[in-house]
Amino acid sequence: MTDVVIIGGGVIGLAIAKVVSQSGFETIVLEKNDRAGDDTSSRNSGVIHAGLYYPEDYLKTSLCIEGNKLLYKYAIDKNINHKKYGKCIIASSDFEIAKLENILKQAKRNNVEIYEADISKVKEDNPGLIFKKALFSPSSGVIDVPEYVTALEGDIQHYGGLVSLNTSFLNAEKENGQFRINCESDQKFSISSKFLINCSGLNSEDNLSSIKGIQKKDIYKNYYAKGHYFKYSGKTPFSNLIYPIADQHSLGIHVGFDLAGGMRFGPDIEFVDKIDYSFDENLKDKFLKSINQYWPEINPDKLHPDYTGIRPKITKPNETMQDFSIQTKKQHGLDRFINLQGIESPGLTSSLAIGKYVNNLLTQGEK
Fold first, then answer.
1. pTM above 0.85?
2. Which domains, from first to last, does the chain contain?
3. pLDDT score, position 367
4. What three-state secondary structure class fits 207?
């Protein structure tokens, strides 16, 4: 018997567990892998976003902006390796300048700090970069995601919660006002809980179909968006994160860093039918062609395969971006069940703000 069971131990599930256990809810996180944060959470750019791109009335926008501040503070408090690099968003053609101006307008509507960059200063800080116009976002940075995951796990334990690894969610149903949640680790067992929260990312669609009382019409289909990352050997010439103009599903093949100072490029985007982290080395030419538009000095021999990640989108390949989906009884009809889907980028940045948001929903559910 417990207060809250959370399906999924990525950064979203862990951040929610940290906040709700801190506020007094006895909490158990079910994680199918042998490590927390081992899927989407650890297979992204590790970028702390500012909240520039999204419509001002989106939940995604407010949670990203709040989450940015919370994540930097948490990283400082917990001594998590991070760095505020700042982000240059660049237009490489006259056609892209109009798009850049739209990003500037949207960021200002979102009340996010951003300004038109001084071209000579950007080129001084990022030698070899070719562009026509740039914006600068000073609050963008990078965090060490494994260190963040470890800190969240430590807090959950400190506040009396439990992260149960190697534990698969099987199904759940309401019994006498409580959730009976069936799980499997070394053996099958059940947990009785007042609240159930689904934030299982890539597996959310399958898990939702195993929760009695949730109708199919209330379940978003998951679309798997696969992205590749290439690393660059040798010294990086850049001081800032470099982002080309985004398209409807991706922020483009951008320049990112690991916290040892290494440089990487990615991700690209390809919609796939199944979860598969294999690396297609034939994409190197596509990456080189894209990178050459803003960094013609790149040495192809120094570009090497790094890793892949898959984002759980609720947006079809031909649709425009959707907001985060955080559903309660009001949307799906099942009391004391909170369902999170489509928590892709900027999910990492938003994670602690999402934790606060869900905790407020639980507290309201207690009244």
1. yes
2. 2-46+146-220+322-366 (3.50.50.60), 87-138+223-313 (3.30.9.10)
3. 38
4. helix
